[in-house]
Amino acid sequence: MAAQPMTPQELLLPVKPGFIMLTLVAALLANLLPWSGWALWLVPDFVALVVLYWCIEEPRKIGFLAAWSLGLLMDIADGSLFGQHALAYSILAYAGISLHRRVQRFSLAQQILHVIPLLLFTDFVVMLVRALAGADFPGYAYFIGSFTGAALWPVLYYLLKLPQRPRPDPDRV
Amino acid sequence: MEHTPPPLFRTGLTPLARLMIFAMLSTVLLIADARFNYLTPLRQAVGVILYPLQRIAAAPAALGKHIADFFVTHAALRQDNQRLSSHNLELAMAAQRTAALQEENTRLRGMLGMREHLTTPSVAAEILYAARDPFSRKVMINQGQLGGIEAGRPVADHVGIIGQITRVYPWLSELTLITDKGQLVPVLNVRTGQRAVMAGTGDEGRLELRFIPLTADFQTGDQLVTSGIDGTYPPGLPVAEVTRVERDTAFLFASIACKPLAAPSAGTQVLVLGPQPAQPERPEAEPAAAPAKKKKGKS
Hints:
The complex is a heterodimer. By secondary structure, chain A is mostly helical.
């Protein structure tokens, strides 16, 4: 296989822990918005997406505890089984943290190809838990959210990187 | 044995070990919740933390509604007014008739020595959002324990029954819709007076009647109301309409699909009905020998 030229890595400012917190809370808020009807199927799990982003970008600054507690909050908000999202987000955090070196080296389009299976797997874990508790298969539309989530990855990547980009130097030619 | 050199940086447990710990914790919580229902206080505590976020998230929709309300045109208002006053007239007529009927009913009931139907206090609430759980059909409403809501209360909107309160937090409660898989509502066919049990299917807008014999008289378009036999739902409230009846002699029971009358969504005003008057005590169980004999005689 021909070696591809590596994309040059940007020099970025260190991310502030407060900003990570803020984005996680914003993702939680986005999940709690009163979605209804078809939007409910289409809307991705924003919390999962943002947790995955930080696990890949800053695996040292976000831990399992954050992912797990956010999962508990989601369980309460959805009135689902206590611990199902907690379990799914922990697994997602593990996948993100152990793959972060690899995923970071890929281009955005290739990163999406990593994100899709990870989000699908998270959905699958939730489905497995519910199946064990006696629920029916909710239909294939259940997995659409993962794909829209992955489609939002570049947007997320751009937005969450914004505060880390150094201001353009006015003296630079 | 090979020894790995001491790590240069202290990193704590490996990710895999951490995953194991948190997966175990989650599993314990899952089992405690699903099997034993131990976690109500914990749920309530986390619910309190989450409450401000839930309110903030519901705010844009409410604001949108306010703005839409503000821009209602004069013509629309007049039209509404006209329609409502004519409707009001109709209702007034109906109410007069109902008053007369009620009077007659009380008299007859008194004659029969039956207990009067109590009108129970109810609480008005609004649906905040639908839970994002595709495996169940639940919504959150903006009244909770502090509003006097208890688990098990039936909930109706202006059209009919929509569900039942299943969990109560201090300021919010979780309402399981009748379309949730596993929700059962005892109903009565208005046309024939036949009783049945209606079950949710987990799909929006689809309910089914269970265990109806093939020969039972059910037709498309039949109105179903609560029969009140369960002591949860008050009798006589509209629930659903029969949309399809299939009688296949290969099966023991007819397949009857229904459509719920109410279509709750975020922002819908609902009424949490009061607890139903206590049912009379169950009679003492008969001695075990008697039913066995009966069965033998039948077969």
